[in-house]
């Protein structure tokens, strides 16, 4: 059955891989499933045709036959459950991998998004400069225990899983802030994720859309 995802017609990051379709592409590449992409303009995102896929008018979405999903956590979880390669067979290890998926999205991602807002949206506000260090500290509060838990392991819980895919995707947004460099094991963890051939294919595919240059 054909899988179709949606992505920005033109991503605000110009193809740096920060738009969330990259996570879904990455998951599909890891499990070896081909997919089609429907590109959506910012205007079309908010129109009823797209809101039928995602009521919040956002990308990415996922269609497979009658099934229509939104929210990257739900989409990656669905892919990981349906196809082999992203979740361990052992039931407890599987539950722990899912725990890391939730941790990435509900515990680690919120302060990272707040940092993006503090820089991009609120940076020119009179109070922006005062707020920024506090927002950065809240990100560090998440990175410290994550770094301690990862230690010198390659991945968060044994073999690479959907939990790592989501955590690396969330951490990638921090690169420009320099915060990752304060935690060399997390910087290396993100680099390991990016070095995976499946990530490379996903990254190149989204870059090609946003730069008009074919994947290398
Ligand atoms: N929690 C959602 C967030 C989706 C999201 O923020 N998508 C962004 C692109 S990465 C978007 O569509 N932004 C345009 C908008 O909100 O108008 C998920 O994980 O899928």
Report what the structure shows.
- The chain has 216 residues and is an alpha+beta fold.
- The protein contains 9 helices and 4 strands.
- It has helices at residues 21-31, 42-45, 48-51, 72-82, 91-121, 128-150, 162-172, 184-195, 197-211, and strands spanning 3-8, 36-40, 61-64, 67-70.
- A 4-stranded mixed β-sheet has the order 2-1-3-4.
- α5 (91-121) runs parallel beside α7 (162-172).
- It is globular.
- The chain starts with a strand and ends in a 5-residue tail after the last helix.
- The model has no long low-confidence stretch (mean pLDDT 96).
Write the layout of secondary structure elements.
Elements: E1 3-8, H1 21-31, E2 36-40, H2 42-45, H3 48-51, E3 61-64, E4 67-70, H4 72-82, H5 91-121, H6 128-150, H7 162-172, H8 184-195, H9 197-211
Parallel strand pairs: 1-2
Antiparallel strand pairs: 1-3, 3-4
Helix pairs in contact: 1-4, 1-7, 1-9, 5-6, 5-7, 7-8
This protein binds glutathione.
Glutathione binds at residues 19-20, 45, 57-59, 71-72.
């Amino acid at each position: 059955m054909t899988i179709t995802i949606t992505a920005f017609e033109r991503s605000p990051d110009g193809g740096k891989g920060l738009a969330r379709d990259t996570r879904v592409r990455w998951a599909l590449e890891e499990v070896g499933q081909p997919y089609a992409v429907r590109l959506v303009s910012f205007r079309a995102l908010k129109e009823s045709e797209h809101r039928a896929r995602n009521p919040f008018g956002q990308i990415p979405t996922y269609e497979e036959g009658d099934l229509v999903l939104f929210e990257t956590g739900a989409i990656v979880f669905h892919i990981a459950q349906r196809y082999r390669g992203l979740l361990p067979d052992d039931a407890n290890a599987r539950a722990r991998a899912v725990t890391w998926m939730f941790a990435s999205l509900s515990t680690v991602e919120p302060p990272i998004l707040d940092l993006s807002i503090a820089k991009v949206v609120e940076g020119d506000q009179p109070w922006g400069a005062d707020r920024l260090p506090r927002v950065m500290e809240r990100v560090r509060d998440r990175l410290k225990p994550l770094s301690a838990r990862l230690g010198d392991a390659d991945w968060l819980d044994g073999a690479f899983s959907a939990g790592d895919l989501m955590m690396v995707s969330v951490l990638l947004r921090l690169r420009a802030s320099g915060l990752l460099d304060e935690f060399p094991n997390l910087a290396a963890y993100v680099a390991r994720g990016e070095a995976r051939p499946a990530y490379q294919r996903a990254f190149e595919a989204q870059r090609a859309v946003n730069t008009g240059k074919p994947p290398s």
